[in-house]
C-alpha cells in the first residue's frame, strides 16, 4: 500500500492495523536512562551555536553526535 493511500484510510478512521508490521514496533522512551554530564562553558556555547544553526535542540544534537561516534567505534 502506498503512503498516500494509507494516509487517506487513516484519516477516514478506517482500520489500517492489518498493513502495519508491529513486530518492529517499540515504545517511545523505552529503555532510556537519564544521565548528567558537565561540560565547560565554551563547549556549551559551541553546542548551542551549532544547534541553533541546525534548528534543533541542544540535547538532540548531543544525542545524535554521540550515537554517530559510537557506531564508528563498534
Task: Return residue spans where pLDDT drops below 50 for at least 5 consecutive residues.
Answer: none
In total, how many domains does the architecture comprise? 1
Distance between the termini: 36 Å
Q: How helix-rich are the residues, as a percent range?
A: 40-55%
Radius of gyration: 19 Å
**Helices and strands: which structural class?**
mainly alpha
Number of DSSP-assigned strands: 0
The number of helical segments is 3
- Overall pLDDT, averaged? 91
Task: Describe this structure as you would to a colleague.
- The protein has about 70 residues and is an all-alpha fold.
- It has one domain.
- It has three helices and no strands.
- α2 crosses α3.
- The two termini are about 35 Å apart.
- The relative contact order is 0.06.
Topology readout:
Layout: H1 3-11, H2 41-54, H3 58-73
Structure in a nutshell:
This protein has helices spanning 3-11, 41-54, 58-73.
Primary descriptors:
74 residues, elongated, mainly alpha
